[in-house]
């Protein structure tokens, strides 16, 4: 059976975006935007201001994390996927390819920053996956308030400070056996953000089984026990 991920439209779109990401110097780009990434999470900036300053920085999942997302989504037969943090849409392309091959469905992703949302939509169209991906522009804490009854997979890849609030928002929709995949869990942005998230998903009272996968800057996989 042919895989959508390997189709010419998806593969060429991903190759182009991943090559652009590879050419980027993220630390230098943040510095040029006036964001000190060596400090704790830049608390002086609101999430929206940080998104505005980072509007030209791709910040995508690594190709390995993208492939992992795709495999997870294929393995659990995901038809309804929610993503926090679209940026240029790279991870959404991996997820939507899986959803298409699972028989179709929807990837709902969300992006704060208007230029990024426009570029992501262009990339979804170029890959021929715009019929699967719905991009909701605005703050995820607002745009993800309305969701389908059940969600199979949640990808948390927006600002780390908002991981737990977004998880809380989507949690009632996660079906038993749904998975939550967190990108860049190793990124230490200070303020105990990483520790609080891990304490939450590792506490048996919260109903997840969770482990870190050593891919790129760490991928946390959390299984919803129901
Ligand atoms: C790491 S990037 C996402 C990368 C993307 N998943 C990919 O692999 O291509 C994080 C994105 O989340 C967006 N973001 C941050 N906070 C947000 C919020 N509250 N609502 C919507 N988007 C947000 C940022 O603007 C940024 O583009």
What do these coordinates show?
The chain is built from nine helices and seven strands; from the N terminus they run ααααβαβαβαβαβαββ. 41% of the residues are buried. The protein has a single domain (4-16, 56-224), classed as Rossmann fold. The protein is of the alpha/beta class. Helix 4 packs parallel to helix 5 (90-101). The mean pLDDT is 94. A seven-stranded mixed β-sheet has the order 3-2-1-4-5-7-6, sandwiched between helices. Strand 2, helix 6 and strand 3 form a beta-alpha-beta unit. The site of S-adenosylmethionine has 24 residues, from helix 3, helix 5, strand 2 and helix 7.
How would you describe this structure in keywords?
single chain, 226 residues, alpha/beta, Rossmann fold, 7-stranded mixed sheet, 9 helices, 40% helix, globular, binds S-adenosylmethionine
Strand content: 15-25%
Strand order of the largest sheet: 3-2-1-4-5-7-6
Helix content: 25-40%
Q: Taking Cα atoms only, what radius of gyration do you get, to the nearest Å?
A: 16 Å
Through-space gap between termini: 32 Å
Q: Major β-sheet, in short?
A: 7 strands, mixed
Number of E-type strands = 7
CATH topology: Rossmann fold
Bound molecules: S-adenosylmethionine
By DSSP (H or I, 4+ residues per run), the number of helices equals: 9
What is the arithmetic mean of pLDDT? 94
Structural class: alpha/beta
Summary of the model, kept short:
This protein is of the alpha/beta class and 226 residues long. 40% of the residues lie in helices and 19% in strands. The two termini are 32 Å apart.
What order do the helices and strands come in, and which of them pair?
Layout: H1 8-23, H2 26-32, H3 47-53, H4 63-75, E1 80-84, H5 90-101, E2 106-111, H6 114-126, E3 133-137, H7 140-143, E4 151-156, H8 163-170, E5 174-183, H9 193-202, E6 208-213, E7 219-224
Parallel strand pairs: 1-2, 1-4, 2-3, 4-5
Antiparallel strand pairs: 5-7, 6-7
Helix pairs in contact: 4-5
This protein binds S-adenosylmethionine (SAM).
S-adenosylmethionine (SAM) is lined by residues 47, 51, 59-61, 85-91, 110-113, 116, 139-141, 157-159, 162.
């Amino acid at each position: 059976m042919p895989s959508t991920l390997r189709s010419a439209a998806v593969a060429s779109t991903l190759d182009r975006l991943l090559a652009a990401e590879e050419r980027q110097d993220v630390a230098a780009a943040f510095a040029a935007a006036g964001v000190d990434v060596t400090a704790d999470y830049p608390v002086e900036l609101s999430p929206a201001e940080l998104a505005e300053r980072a509007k030209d920085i791709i910040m995508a999942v690594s190709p390995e994390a993208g492939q992992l997302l795709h495999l997870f989504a294929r393995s659990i037969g995901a038809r309804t996927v929610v993503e926090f943090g679209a940026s240029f849409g790279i991870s959404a392309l991996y997820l939507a390819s899986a959803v298409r091959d699972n028989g179709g469905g929807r990837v709902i992703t969300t992006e704060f920053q208007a230029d990024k949302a426009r570029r992501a939509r262009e990339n979804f169209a170029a890959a021929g996956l715009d019929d699967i991906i719905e991009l909701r522009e605005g703050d995820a804490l607002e745009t993800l308030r309305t969701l389908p009854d059940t969600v199979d997979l949640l990808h948390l890849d927006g600002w780390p400070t908002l991981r737990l609030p977004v998880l809380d928002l989507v949690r009632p929709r996660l079906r038993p056996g749904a998975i939550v995949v967190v990108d860049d869990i190793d990124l230490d942005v200070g303020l105990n953000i990483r520790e609080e998230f891990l304490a939450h998903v590792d506490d048996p009272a919260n109903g997840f089984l969770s482990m870190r996968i050593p891919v790129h800057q760490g991928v946390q996989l959390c299984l919803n026990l129901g």
